[in-house]
Amino acid sequence: MAEKATAKPAKESPKESEQVSSVHIFPEWCKGCGICVAFCPKQVLEMGDDQKAHVAHPEKCIRCYLCARRCPDFAITVADEEGNIVREEGDHQ
Amino acid sequence: MDYAEIRLSGSGGQGMGLAGRIFSESAITEGYNVCQTQSYGPEARGGASRTDIIFSCHQILFPNCRNLDVLLAMNQESSDKFSDSVREDGLILVDSTYVDQPPEGNRVYEYKLTQTSMETFKIPLAANLIALGIIAALTRYFSLESWTDAIRRTVPERFRDLNLDAFELGHREGREILHVEEGRVPVAYDRKRPVPECIKERFEDRRRASGKGGGSRKSNKRKKDSSKKKKKSGGK
Amino acid sequence: MIVPWGETRLVQGNEAVALGAVASELDLFAGYPITPSSEVAELLSRFLPQQGKKWIQMEDEIASISAIIGGSLAGARSMTATSGPGFSLMQEGLGYACMTEVPLVLVNVMRGGPSTGLPTQVAQGDVMQARWGTHGDHPVIALIPADVKECFELTIKAFNLAEEYRTPVILLSDEVIGHMRERVDFPEKEEMDLTRQPRPDVPVEWYEHYHPTATNVSPMARFGRGYRFHVTGLTHDVHGFPTRKVDEVNAKMERLKHKITRRLEDLEDNRIHGVEESDVVIFAYGSVYRSAMAARQMLAEEDGENVGVFRPVTIWPFPDKTVKELLDTKDVVLVPELNQGQIIHEVERLTVDSVRVVPLHRVDGYEITPEEIVDRIREVM
Amino acid sequence: MPAHLPYEYKYLRHKKKFPHVWCPGCGIGILMGSIIRAVDALGWKKDDVVMSSGIGCTSRMPVYVDFNTLHTTHGRALAFSTGVKLANPELQIVAVMGDGDALAIGGNHLIHTARRNLDMTAIVVNNSNYGMTGGQFSPTTPEGAKTSTTPYGMIEPTFDACDLARSAGASFVARGTVYHVMELDKFLQKAMRKKGFSLVEVLSPCPTSFGRRNKQADPVKMMESLRDGTVNTAQAKKMKPEELEGKIVRGIFHDIEKKEYLERYEELCARASETAVK
Fold first, then answer.
1. C60 and D55: CB-CB below 8 Å?
2. Does the interface ipTM go beyond 0.90?
3. Which positions in chain D touch C59 (Cβ < 8 Å)?
């Protein structure tokens, strides 16, 4: 496939409801497969009209990382308490 | 009409191939020579996919379209890429569910194909047949029987009614557009006209009859709050 | 009734190949998935079991060609279908089938190459491979369709030639022809030549698997029917037993060569349009022939020029005599190809220096358009 | 730029077009994340990693990751990788293949690379069909399943890739699924850390080519059958045979210490140099 636009996606939709949440969904990469929504242990996520996943109940998120790791398209990131992206066993580089 | 070039373009999984086959089958029923080619990449979903159809009274030599009588563009990329290979008096139909900036041209029609399909038939996949209906009405290629016959021959049994309904919805819309353009019907034509009730009811009855009533997993979605509405509101 | 004899249908190229195979009473298909030929295998996986015939998807292309050689020896009319990368894997098997004079049909739906290349796009880059892909001197018959109906007719012809000449026959289709859908008015069954070659009827002791005959082809027995013959890729004598004796080796090699060279007229199949009367000729094959004919039409309408078109349907053996006869007196021969120049070398070989042989290449996965041909013709006119 | 980057992001090639080529709900993207996390956890430097692949949907993975990447011919990833390893034993090789790629056309190379116990990790993504070419059956397609080349149902028996690799000589063999992603992360780390030939079979959904033809077009349904259709080795031990019927067992089946091929080769060179000295 053609070397098209860079992997840096253009724009991100407004997300007041996701402000406090540690789960961030990136609509440009989400293909609406529904896996994250179906298997989130706390039903934090829901499918929107635009066939994309949305954070519906951020307060319920227990940061288990399952949605991020089961997302086939790298469209979900989960931040820790301070809000930055950290691996479980400490940062490498 | 003794020679016409039609291009149905969109992304993988939007049914351009099936729509193309129905188009070609209709042409054959009316005795035309037909040649249909496809061009696509590795992606079975997403990615660019287009189907070219040429029908003619004479032998068709070169199989690819070069200046189009009809262009269907289901997304912005296809619309941008192919709109300038449409003839002067060619027709362009774009799915304004995804196409924000429609192309220039004197016969450009915007219609929320996928959205209408979702609202009427609960799935997006009938958009291609709605589009065929509109194109069939606007171009007056082939008789209605040839189209519906082709749909029956091409579409698997379990999707036949859905596709026939979608085609009829599109055909009705196309006739509506035609009447307005030819000034035959004085009524103010409002692009956001609701889907004709009779089609919706018949579809609902059949859904209840088949025991599929109630929302499927996809439809218990969150009501969009106003802040999330897309910048450009609905049809022009 | 799988084959729609006498009916009009919208048919895909690959589908027409599958229908042609069924029409030829195919007994065994062995293949492996590869774009853009998978539809042939997929359709036959539906048709053949309905007739109680054998269909198998092998673990790869080497296995596929091996299986159909085995099948053919055991009495099955056999076929496989592949594309460039698979065709390369099949070369050793193809050579084996040439040496052991086993009839089979190999369909190669050409795609952008080399290597993985452009799997969903068109090219004609395997034409020389069809002739010289396998090692050593060997006979080759290759046919090139240019529309969907020909996919049907040439598949039937391929089966007939394979049996008549006891050799593999290659059908060189391409992604455009293979995936294109066209209206096809199917012939009546009676119009098609579905003759079968006679089986040997000599007493077992007299049977020679490679019996010398005027046409260098002898009726071939099949396993399990009383003749108990030996087959080996080693160079062999008339009985099929290995030999290194000079006269027997030469006899074998001459037989392999002459069974083709002695019957070039029978094998030749060209489409010639206005070549005698024109000074400029387009030499085109396969899907590019369609662009050439469209260009011929445009040049006639717009420039009032009669530009001839010469199209070989049987590409191997190459129609040397006719090409030389017809093209030697021309000013210009344009050879448009979806490769970087392969058949053009054959045309150059056969024409005197006074004839200007002009290439027109396209290897970006798209068809050469009639306009491109017309522009090049106008340049050289 | 998204405000919050997935931390796998620094291992992705940013010039490549995202979202990637795989269909919605395909599990190959999940596996790619899992491999990246394993590389990260093992502290491998990007320059030391070679990801190779054959042909098919899975084979499109290397182009997206910022390693030395080698997209080879159909079924030949392990053969190419053998040459890479011989030329530069320092390189850490991860070969990703589909079920057809590894077990049909690539079967011969799989058993011989395992037999040699060459130090590399082979990952076989098992989605029960050839997705890229439109859904033909593969050696792992379950009996009775519908595919584009088994319109009347699959009749060929399948074989177990893990048993095959173990009996051929692999020193580490495991099977996981993209649903059990935490477990998969662990299996991959162990496999990649292992000195010798490791094979990990990863069950993965294919909604478009396989699911649609077998009443599982919805990615969520396919993931549910991975969840409900598999048990880990501990659970399996406690289950009666009839309970295990139709279930696929996940876990590490084989993990032994065995002389790696290049160790043998060094010994050979030592012997050779002795003869040269005399």
1. no
2. no
3. 104-105, 107, 139
Residue B163 lies in a domain: yes
Question: Which residues of B fall below an 8 Å CB-CB distance to C?
Answer: 20-21, 24-25, 27-28, 32-42, 60-64, 66
Write the pLDDT tens digit of every residue in C252-295: 999 999 999 999 999 999 999 999 999 999 999 999 999 999 99
Which pTM value belongs to this model?
0.89
Query: In chain C, which residue's Cα lies nearest the Cα of D132?
Result: C35
Q: Flag if D21 and B43 touch (Cβ within 8 Å).
A: yes
| B234, part of any domain | no
Looking at the complex, report in whole angstroms how far the Cα of residue A64 sits from the nearest Cα belonging to chain B.
23
Domains annotated on chain A, with CATH: 17-77 (3.30.70.20)
Q: Where are the beta strands (DSSP E) in chain C?
A: 8-12, 28-31, 54-57, 78-82, 104-110, 141-143, 168-174, 181-185, 270-273, 280-283, 308-312, 314-316, 332-337, 356-361
- The token pair that represents C276 in the structure block: 């005698």
Domain membership flag for residue D38: yes
B229 domain-assigned: no
For each of the domains in chain C, give its residue range(s) and CATH number, in order of start. 8-191 (3.40.50.970), 268-380 (3.40.50.920)
How are beta strands C8-12 and D172-177 bridged, if at all? unpaired
Helix (H, G, I), strand (E, B) or coil at C171: strand
Dist CA C238 CA C247 (whole Å):
11
Distance CA D137, CA C33 (A): 9
Domain that holds residue D40: 7-277
Mind listing the pLDDT tens digit for each residue in D190-236? 999 999 999 999 999 999 999 999 999 999 999 999 999 999 999 99
User: Residue D254 in contact with residue D243, Cβ under 8 Å?
Assistant: no
CB C332 within 8 Å of CB C278: no
